[in-house]
Specification:
single chain; 4-stranded antiparallel beta sheet; Methylamine Dehydrogenase, Chain H; WD40/YVTN_repeat-like_dom_sf; about 650 residues; mainly beta; WD40 repeat domain-containing protein; signal
């Protein structure tokens, strides 16, 4: 049975994975969450709590694991002998960390947003910033046998050397011209190996001279990423995206290679050598595999946690250790035992993250993040519903919640009040990020807009019928663009687009569009460019026969769909965020930076002016400012706390 045909149900124990405590009891059916407030703004505390991990490395018998998305991020020291997290070390900058390596007893951490390099002296516990770069991401790092540290960067796609002895950095240049990502890296005495995307390349860089040579097998010409990498004395082992393949290559003779497929997988997320085998993990299934170097045989060993991504594998003490969000697993080749260890239950710190979406069904408020969503109940309680991925979009249909989840562009279902989420289907078609979704009452369909995988062209509009489970994927629907925002009414889906197709590709167009799509005839009716120079339409709503949208440039626009004309525009901020209708009023959120929700405003539709409802919020969002509404008020962030904003027409 394929992974998509299995009903993947995540247990209530998933809350323990992310918070370290059992899920709180929840009210069954409450009329609403309206009640007494502490003023015009009521805080419900941290909006979403997690401890998503980015990478880990062993020093002795201690596994040092770094978080991503917390403030601040931390390196937790997991003493495997004591089976406990014994210390935490703060990383002051960055929204997260994907990159770690070690030199002796020192651990190095590379952050993103910004790209900084930190050293953790594990003997003293001292953390110090040793370098900073103009890039956005340090994707991965590796240490050479003589103690140099090599960093793979984005968006420049370059490799950088850091010398701990002198503190000097050396730019080894762009690995492959035109490519933005060095996603995997390894180094030996003479050579740095760089795995590149979004068009896959494998490059060998001479450490002494900096001379580069392509050693990619010809099969990589049609692949996306060399996304993970491990090395022993003679071979490299690499995970190739997006067809779920393992590449094993002789370092002395790159023409001597083998490619092994893991059926049903798209990604090989991590690799490690142990003895005569390469161990690797796949997604979407989350399976741990073993590849025999002599025979080429691939065997599935087990699933530590369904569909979860494994950030890194290590061979340690004769066993394979894998790091996932909030946990590690241990595989013993001698016994075949696969053990799952919850790090939060062993003392790993959890904390407020940058949330991704907010939604209210009138009883519960849902805030999504890494590895699931936080559910805020009518009595102020909060609990976690786990999902292996990041919910990016939400719709409510007949009392059931539907969630679009990154990666894989998956669709999940959740019954309010339960502690579970179920996998319903996958969009496929090389789609990755479900940017937005909307339900059309006339046709019963959920319209889902998605962005494709890195390096891939053309986003999609997917139509899901919750009554039958039928899925219809239309790609492309607006050629050369992705669908970023969706509204639906009376059999028509209104689409706001994004000029970016898969990340890593230069945009082919210069301005985002607004389009109308007939859900019955399954055809594009019209399209237009409402705001010159806008990269994306952050949100779109239909209200009283008009369309209202807001762009990344902070321009709110009104469109008459009958005449297909922009009728009015106004500036609402530096960056535009979500739009919502509450009690017949149009509200929005805007910010001075793309991921901050600073101001909630109401739109006077007669004068087409805005009036501030709340300001100075500094809402710390992951991917654009979000806003939700129900009869009680408006929901957004103040910092990383969930807040409700009372409105004159709300039932407070």
């Amino acid at each position: 049975m394929s992974w998509l045909r299995r009903l993947l149900v995540l247990p209530a124990a998933a809350a323990l994975l992310l918070t370290g405590s059992p899920p709180a009891a929840h009210a069954q059916t409450a009329p609403s969450r309206c009640g007494p407030t502490g003023g015009p703004i009521t805080s419900y505390g941290p909006a979403s709590v997690t401890n998503a991990l980015g990478n880990a490395v062993f020093v002795g018998d201690t596994l040092y694991a770094v978080t991503r998305g917390l403030s601040p991020n931390v390196v937790g020291a997991y003493d495997t002998a004591a089976d406990a997290v014994t210390a935490h070390h703060d990383i002051p900058t960055g929204i997260g960390a994907w990159a770690m390596t070690k030199v002796g007893t020192d651990v190095y951490v590379g952050t993103h947003g910004p790209a900084d390099l930190y050293k953790l002296d594990t003997l003293t516990g001292q953390v110090s910033e040793v370098a900073s770069f103009e890039d956005t991401y340090v994707w991965n790092m590796a240490a050479s046998p003589d103690g140099k540290v090599y960093l793979g960067m984005s968006p420049t796609g370059r490799v950088v050397e850091y010398d701990p002895a002198s503190g000097a950095t050396r730019d080894l240049g762009v690995a492959v011209q035109g490519e933005e990502y060095v996603r995997s890296i390894a180094a030996d005495d003479t050579t740095v190996y760089a795995g590149v995307g979004s068009h896959a390349h494998l490059v060998a860089i001479d450490r002494a001279t900096g001379v580069k040579r392509e050693i990619s097998p010809p099969e990589l010409a049609s692949r996306d990423f060399v996304a993970s990498m491990a090395m022993n004395d003679t071979h490299l082992a690499m995970g190739i995206s997006s067809q779920g393949e393992l590449l094993v290559l002789d370092k002395d003779d790159p023409g001597d290679y083998r490619i092994a497929a893991a059926p049903g997988e798209k990604y090989v997320t991590s690799v490690a050598f142990l003895g005569e085998h390469v161990y690797f993990t796949g997604r979407p299934t989350g399976t741990l595999y073993r590849y025999h170097l002599e025979t080429g045989e691939v065997e599935a060993l087990g699933v530590p946690y369904p569909e979860a991504g494994t950030q890194v594998l290590h061979a340690h003490d004769g066993k394979i250790w894998g790091t996932q969000d909030g946990a590690v697993f241990v595989y013993d080749p001698a016994t075949g035992e696969l053990e799952y260890r919850n790090l939060v239950a062993r003392g790993m710190r959890a904390g407020p993250e940058q949330p991704m979406t907010v939604f209210s069904d009138g009883t519960y408020v849902y805030v999504s993040g890494k590895g699931g969503m936080q559910v805020h109940g009518p009595d102020g309680e909060s609990r976690r519903v786990g999902m292996p991925g990041e919910p990016k979009s939400t719709a409510l249909v007949d009392g059931r919640l539907y969630l679009g989840v990154y990666t894989q562009a998956l669709l999940y279902g959740h019954d309010p009040g339960s502690d579970e989420a179920s996998l319903l289907t996958g969009i496929g078609n090389r789609q990755d990020r479900p940017r937005d979704m909307a339900h059309d009452a006339d046709t019963g369909l959920i319209a889902i807009g998605t962005q494709p995988e890195p390096g891939q062209e053309n986003g999609a509009l997917s139509l899901y019928d919750p009554r039958t489970g039928e899925l219809d994927v239309r790609r492309p629907v607006v050629p050369d663009q992705s669908v970023y925002s969706v509204a639906a009414a009376e059999g028509v889906a209104y689409l706001g687009t994004y000029i970016q197709e898969g990340f890593g590709l230069p945009p082919k167009t210069s301005t985002a569009r607004l389009a109308a799509y007939d859900l019955r005839e399954r055809k594009l009716l019209w399209q237009m460019e409402p705001v010159p120079g806008a990269a994306f339409v952050a949100d779109v709503v239909r209200h009283r026969g008009r369309l209202y949208g807001v762009t990344d440039t902070g321009v709110l626009f009104e469109v008459d769909p009958a005449r297909r004309q922009v009728t009015r525009t106004t500036k609402v901020g530096a960056f535009g965020g979500d739009l919502v209708i509450q009690a017949g009023q149009l509200y929005g959120v805007s910010g001075e930076t793309v991921n901050k929700g600073d101001r909630v405003y109401r739109v006077d539709l007669r004068a087409f002016t805005t009036h501030t409802v709340a300001d100075g919020l500094a809402g710390d969002w992951f991917d654009g400012a979000k806003l939700a509404a129900d009869p009680c008020g408006l929901y957004t962030l103040r910092g990383r706390d969930l807040v409700r904003i009372d409105t004159p027409h709300g039932r407070n």
